Amino acid sequence: MNVWLVKLEEPVPQDSNYRPYRMGMLESALVARGHRVLRWCSDLNHLTGEARYGHSTSVTYTENQCYEFISSGVTYKSPISIGRVIDNFLVKLKIKNKAKSLVAPDLIVCSMPTPALCKLSAQLSSHFSVPLVLDCRDYWPEIIYSEAKGWKLLAAYMLAFKMRRDLRYACKQAHSFVGITDFFTGHLLKYSGRSAGRFDKVFPLGFSPASSPDSEADTETMRAFWAERGVSLAEHEFIFYFAGRLNSTVYNAIQPVVDALKMLEQALPKALFVFCGSGSHATSIQNTFSDSTNVVFPGEMDSCALGYLRAHSTAALQPVERRIDYQNSYSNKFFEYLSSGLPIFSWLDGISGQKLVSEQCGFIYNDAEALTAQIIRFCGDKGLRVEMSRRAKALFNDEFDAGVVYEGYAKHLEAVYADSKAESYV
Q1: Euclidean distance between the first and final Cα of the chain, in Å?
Q2: Can you tell me the distance from the alpha carbon of 341 to that of 214, in angstroms, rounded to the nearest whole number?
Q3: Which of 9, 101, 109, 217 has the fewest CB atoms found within 10 Å of its own CB?
Q4: What would the pLDDT profile of 323-346 be if each residue is shown by its tens digit?
């Protein structure tokens, strides 16, 4: 098959410190099965905020991996901004013009969001008479209201009307819906106005441990590196790990952790809580722990440093606000923690929290007292720690390993394509 993957913001293999996201992992699975992949990408690297080439260009990476980098000439810092709206509009127009001059695909996979690109993909699907698969990973347009404030909220309401119209159009044209959970597949079905069919599936985000391996390399160097940042493996018997964006979703759920750490200073003096990362609320989050001595904020760390820290951590934290989309999905960090055999203490009590409890590899806490009691019990029982770690890794290997997830996804796309060919002969 010649498959087009439409998702502007994800990293690509040419990027430094490349770490594949969903489309990258699907791309690898398809190429491994002998298919050709063309990815439509923004020239703007959304992780660094810098242009890759500074203009639109076509790149052949391997015989079966090609990329169309589209430049709008517009940059933006905030994901909710006029700049992004203008960028997306201009990129969409350029994709529309460029796409029709290329060799026709056999199948198109478009990520949702954005609804506008879903609509464009539906139009291209119709133009080429090929099947369209919509892949839903975010609760757009409904969730954009929670991210906007002031005049941006008014703009969000105005944009939402068009987004709903675009998404409805795309869903009525699509041959298959894929969601990262049942909730997101159902979100697309709601817009389509039909019931679920045999090509409507769930494939979780998945995670490739090889992209961020646990590391024992350069042991002495890494020990010294972390000791300089307040993490002493000799002094701290229990290390609780967090790595991710320190944004509003963490800030809004951090208070129970703050209060628990105050209680744990005396009850568990050899425990240390490490929050790696940066973000819009990093300073505010750090300030809430100003009276605590058992927490450190080392900032952004590279994959080697994080891999080493995970390999020496006892458990992980998931302090994420209970927003409807987060309650109905699994984050990349959830998979990363499990892949390292780290039991998880979760504020989320939706599907990720329930999965942890049912598989006996984590806890849900509803307040600081519960979190404190859970951590004290966990640290005081070595047998429990070993068993929960084993269960965490087994759960990951069985359900969330990228090799398992995306091989299944690739086979699904093959089935959709085969069905479309069979229909064309009827």
Answers
A1: 21
A2: 10
A3: 101
A4: 999 999 998 899 999 999 999 999
Cβ atoms of 203 and 405 within 8 Å: the answer is yes
pLDDT tens by residue, 379-398: 999 999 999 999 999 999 99
Please determine, looking at this structure, whether the domain spanning 2-206+402-424 carries the CATH number 3.40.50.2000. Answer: yes
Architecture (CATH level 2) of domain 209-400 = 3-Layer(aba) Sandwich (3.40)
User: Which residue do the tokens 């090609």 mark?
Assistant: 66
Helices (H) and strands (E) in the chain, counts: 17, 16
Phi then psi for residue 55, to 5 deg, are -165, 165
Q: Which residue has the tokens 């506008």?
A: 116
| pLDDT single digits (tens) 115-127 | 999 999 999 999 9
> Can you say whether residue 208 is alpha, beta or left, with left for phi > 0 and alpha for psi between -120 and 50 degrees?
beta
Tell me the CA distances in angstroms from 168 to 189, 287, 349, 421, one per residue in order.
10, 44, 30, 25
Q: Is 382 in contact with 360 (CB distance < 8 Å)?
A: no
> Could you give the CA distance from residue 338 to residue 207 in angstroms, rounded to a whole number?
10
Do residues 301 and 243 make contact, with C-beta atoms less than 8 angstroms apart? yes
pTM for the model: 0.86
Confidence label for 217 from pLDDT (cuts 50, 70 and 90): low
pLDDT level of residue 216 (50, 70, 90 thresholds): low
Whole-angstrom Cα Rg for the chain? 22
**Helices within 301-342 (DSSP H only):** 303-311, 324-327, 332-339
Could you tell me the CA-to-CA distances from 20 to 17, 305, 403 in Å, in that order?
A: 10, 18, 12
Residues of the chain with CATH 3.40.50.2000: 2-206+402-424, 209-400
What pLDDT, on the 0 to 100 scale, is given for residue 146? 66
User: Nearest to residue 417, comparing CAs of 3, 126, 136, 117?
Assistant: 3
Minimal CA–CA distance to 136: which of 85, 189, 81, 172? 189
Beta strand residue intervals within 244-391, DSSP E: 271-276, 295-299, 315-318, 344-346, 362-364
Q: Look at the block and give the residue holding tokens 């759960």.
A: 395
Query: pLDDT confidence of 191, banded at 50, 70, 90?
Result: very high
